[in-house]
Write a structure and sequence with these properties.
binds pyridoxal-5'-phosphate, six-stranded parallel sheet, 710 residues, alpha/beta, 23 strands, Rossmann fold, twelve-stranded mixed sheet
């Protein structure tokens, strides 16, 4: 290859264990259970202190320690075994190679505005990004040829701090690239760049590569010499809230992304848009054919066969749409290049609203894709209704939008102890068979005591982690004592613990459980039956109602009457998410149905044995069977939000009081709650196979990727 990548860091390591440096630059390590030891054994304190960042760790670990371990027999045994697995991973025969040999050499290009791969690479804001990250990891495990395309945000997503009064403060710090697992793509010693033209100027992008197992992820970055100061910041942050920069960002992703893949010599067979942000890629691909002489209509028809679009938004208002004057401002050159008039161009994505018309990114994607899908069964239905007007000759059921329910990457989210337990009782190869429900039939063989011991261990781990975080915050100052209490220092590792962590958007109704505070306080403070609720989540910095909601929750959390049992943890990210989903007893979710397109955090909790307690929306509506958790409200539409909120709140309190709390505290003389554990087993059996990215990515291949190859 004429291309090279220059890693952001080189390490000074003894030769015998020098491959640790290679490993640090492949995120494969993030989903291997032994990784914490492969790195950590060299210096556990440092590994923790640096937040599990192998790049910083390898740079800072003392040469004395690394030399010692390079001669330590036990360590070398672990090391050799680990790297044997690493090497085998890249050569193993895989599902895709056996089923779809045609893929070889022609990858799926997967475009997403954000990718949630690991907490040390903060280029994601929430569920959409984590889903994209899990998609990449699964593609790698399956051996599906796939490349990701996104942005290298120089400032990352913000760090959240709450003031004493619960007001969210967003801290944006420039990322230190030398601490990140990114490599600059170069050719002949110079960074490879691509250009994207706007009417008044050209913006250059350089490309960073992140290795995710076998899958490369290419991240565009406008912070290059020659661009204006303004342009250098275009890719600095996720989702600029001013529409000007949003349009430009999306042009850079769609148009710049296609050009980046061309510059790298990659020839995708399928182009998958994860949400509408990347929809300009459809036009750039058509433009390539127009430049070779095709009329636009032919070019669009030819290229759309390879385009796949996944929508995640269940409300028209939540969609990415731009006023037409903005499209004029930034895309005037583009329609000339497509051989279209302004009207023809606007028509490609026109959304006619009562008083205005807009350029809608999802409409563009829907019209120029051969396959489109929502992310749960209900969301598929809702989407067909929502976009029915684009196919006026079709009935709702015939609208060509299917659904593939989201999943989570099992190895990434399941606790190590639980994986080991499954290894013993289900078989060492359970991971290879994880999406087959038959694999989990023998789960009942696991003695209740053993499963409970693992769960208790993970719960204690969560409580220790919470205390260490508070200690750190308190020590660094600027933290009021009442915030210390609100951050969980009074947590009891043996009390029933409910997690509620997600983006604070108002439709998620974080305050539903607080709608009758007196009733809640009575429920959580009963003698011998304490209940704890842990909240966490960020609001988009420009989302005032979201921030007010955090404040409302925080004010309730701070009351002394809660006894320190209601907790708010700052700065929800993938690391905190991992502790929470692995450590709580119940995962609660209260979206206003049907606005949760899918949701994935509840799946992460379920595959660790937590019981979901959720509105019958998104994925839970498909998973809930009456024995693997609880529902909130009914599976239907309500006449108004007020009626729905009141009915859901009443149901929530009743279920907590009459079912959840009594079951949890119903245990035998050895404190083993057998009824509860039976539900845990049912949840593991039903959720692990079905709500995995293993099942999900295979469905993408079967329904969309493979047909597009023909
Ligand atoms: C999984 C995850 C999400 C998505 O959660 P939902 O509320 O279920 O959509 C958001 N943020 C983080 C950090 C996650 O890990």
């Amino acid at each position: 290859m004429e291309f090279k990548t220059i890693p952001s860091q080189k390490f000074d390591l003894p030769k015998r264990i020098a491959r640790l440096g290679e490993l640090a630059f492949n995120l494969w390590w993030t989903w291997q259970p032994e990784s914490a030891h492969i790195f950590g054994k060299l210096d556990y304190d440092l590994w923790e202190r640096l937040g599990h960042n192998p790049i910083r760790f390898l740079r800072e670990v003392s040469r004395k320690r690394s030399s010692r371990f390079s001669k330590d027999g036990d360590y070398l045994e672990l090391y050799d075994e680990y790297f044997k697995k690493f090497d085998e991973y890249f050569t193993s025969l895989t599902w895709t190679k056996t089923v779809y040999p045609k893929f070889n050499g022609n990858p799926v290009a997967y475009f997403s505005m954000e990718f949630g791969l690991h907490e040390t690479l903060p280029i994601y804001s929430g569920g959409l990004g984590v889903l994209a990250g899990d998609h990449l990891k699964e593609a790698s495990d399956l051996g599906l040829p796939l490349v990701g395309v996104g942005f290298m945000y120089a400032q990352g997503y913000f760090t959240q701090r709450l003031s004493e009064d619960g007001w969210q403060e967003a801290i944006n710090n420039p990322l230190t690239f030398e601490h990140l697992p990114v490599s600059l793509v170069v050719k002949d010693g110079k960074p490879v760049t691509v250009q994207v033209e706007f009417p008044d100027r050209t913006v250059a992008l350089q490309i960073w590569e992140v290795r995710v197992g076998r899958v490369p992820l290419y991240l565009l970055d406008s912070n290059v010499e020659g661009n204006t100061e303004f342009d250098r910041l275009l890719t600095a942050r996720l989702y600029w809230s001013d529409l000007d920069r949003r349009v430009m960002q999306e042009v850079l992703l769609g148009v710049g992304g296609v050009r980046a893949l061309r510059a790298l010599g990659i020839k995708p067979a399928v182009w998958h848009m994860n949400e509408g942000h990347a929809a300009f890629l459809t036009l750039e691909r058509a433009r390539e054919l127009v430049a070779k002489g095709s009329p636009f209509a032919t070019a669009a028809q030819t290229t759309l066969k390879q385009n796949v679009f996944t929508t995640h938004t269940p409300v028209p208002a939540g969609n990415d749409e731009f006023p037409l004057w903005l499209i004029d401002k930034y895309l005037a050159k583009f329609w000339h290049e497509l051989g279209l008039t302004r009207e023809e161009f606007a028509d490609l994505a026109k959304h006619q609203l009562p008083h205005t018309e807009t350029f809608s990114m999802p409409i563009l994607a829907l019209k120029l894709s051969s396959g489109s899908n929502g992310v749960s069964e209900l969301h598929g239905q809702v989407s067909r209704g929502m976009w029915n007007f684009l196919w006026q000759d079709k009935a709702v059921d015939e609208v060509p939008i299917q659904h593939i329910t989201n999943g989570v990457h099992t190895a990434n989210w399941m606790a190590r102890r639980l994986k080991q337990l499954f290894g013993r009782y289900i078989g060492d190869d359970w991971y290879d068979r994880l999406d087959d429900p038959a694999t989990w039939e023998n789960l009942d063989d696991i003695p209740d005591e053993e499963l409970w011991a693992v769960h208790q261990h993970l719960k204690r781990k969560l409580t220790f982690y919470m205390r260490e975080r508070v200690r750190d915050r308190w020590t660094h100052g600027g933290f009021h004592p009442v915030q210390v209490v609100s951050s969980g220092v009074l947590i009891n590792p043996y009390a029933l613990t409910i997690g509620f962590a997600r983006r604070f958007a108002t439709y998620k109704r974080a305050n539903l459980v607080l709608s009758d505070v007196d009733r809640l306080l009575d429920l959580i403070n009963r003698p011998n039956m304490p209940v704890q609720i842990i909240f966490a989540g960020k609001a988009h910095p420009a989302d005032e109602p979201g921030k007010q909601l955090i404040q409302k929750v925080y004010r309730a959390v701070k009351q002394a009457e809660t006894g320190g049992r209601i907790i708010f943890l700052e700065d929800y990210d993938m690391n905190l998410a991992r502790y929470l989903v692995q450590g709580v007893d119940v995962w609660m979710n209260t979206p206003r149905r049907p606005l949760e397109a899918s949701g994935t955090s509840g799946m992460k909790a379920a595959i660790n044995g937590a019981l979901n307690f959720s509105v019958l929306d998104g994925w839970w509506r498909e998973a809930y069977n009456g024995q693997n958790g609880w529902s909130i409200g009914e599976d239907r539409e309500y006449e108004s939000n007020e009626v729905q909120d009141a009915a859901d709140a009443e149901d929530l309190y009743q279920t907590l009081e009459q079912k959840i709390i009594p079951l949890y505290y119903d245990h035998d003389s050895k404190e083993i709650p057998h009824g509860w554990i039976a539900m845990m087993k049912n949840t593991l059996q039903t959720v692990i196979p079905q709500f995995s990215t293993r099942r999900m990515v295979k469905q993408y291949v079967e329904k969309f990727y493979a047909p597009a190859l023909k």
